[in-house]
Amino acid sequence: MDPNEKIDVEVNKHGTPCGPESGLFASFLGVVARNGLFTPLELNWRKAEFRPYKAKILDLVQTKFRYPAATTKWILSTVNRRWSDYKTKLKSKYYDPELSIEEILAIPKPEGVIDTHWQTLVNRWYTEEFQRLSRINAENASNMKTPHTCGRMSIARWKAIKTMETGKEPDRLETFENTHTRKNGTYVNGYTATLIEKAHTLRQEGSFDNEQLFQKVHGPEHPGRVRCAGLGPTPSTYLGPSSSSASINSTTTSNSNEVDALRSEVIELRNELMEAKSEVVELRSGMDQLQMEVDTLKTLFLQHLRREKGSMEGSIRAPSSSSQSATRG
Description:
Blueprint: E1 7-8, H1 22-33, H2 51-64, E2 65-66, H3 72-94, H4 101-106, H5 115-125, H6 128-142, H7 155-166, H8 172-179, H9 190-205, H10 210-218, H11 235-238, H12 241-254, H13 256-328
Parallel strand pairs: 1-2
Helix pairs in contact: 1-3, 9-10
Coiled coil: 259-293
Protein name: Transposase
Pfam families: Transposase_24
């Protein structure tokens, strides 16, 4: 294959790669995610400091692959996830609470990792904020109750294959049941079995379509992602604005205490800002007063210089007059 030739990426209606080249595409992004020149370990993906690197990532990808603009979000989301997974693996392999920062840095660093990036990352492992986030992430990972059986194949690719085989795109309930069932016909765990059995029971009790059954069993979607739709689609793009709003409203209601707390913080910050503004006004007033005093001192100093100059000129002229009188005598 010509190294200058671009690979065409097949995508579904959501812009998510679903063709036979999707695995290669994802693997390439995984390599990019481990390259410190494109994804520095010491930066925060969500902050503005990462924007130039995101642009570099997209510039690189565009030299190798051809895809629609709608796929850009999926690309960055995939790199972000692979980059986060990479940092997690590094911490799992190298971090030891019994060792000091210096002792870990004395160990040969991972191949391909930039020295300054590695030093910053290791130091961050020992901060209280990082430890807090690690506990939250570990708890979230332990709460993942429905692992799928697709392996390295993405949900989008699995759905594309099934669509070609049957001529019909599988809905989310069909996708969930098929991708959470082992080859021997058993479900991946008891929780998954409970969800699927509940959907079957609801189908017998009422006239629901599969999408309605899926939503009843799983509940509202989490903001920013959709179950059994692969990486990329959001509730608003997949289910429509009303579903997204319902999900957001549900989340907002369940977190009302947090909202109240945030509102209180905003009020406190606003009060602090007002106090700061008053201090600035007072400081400016003080500076103006100081400037007036300086101007007054400058005026007095100039007046003093003029008087001194006049006095000196007078003393110089006086001897000259007496000298002339003596000459006349």
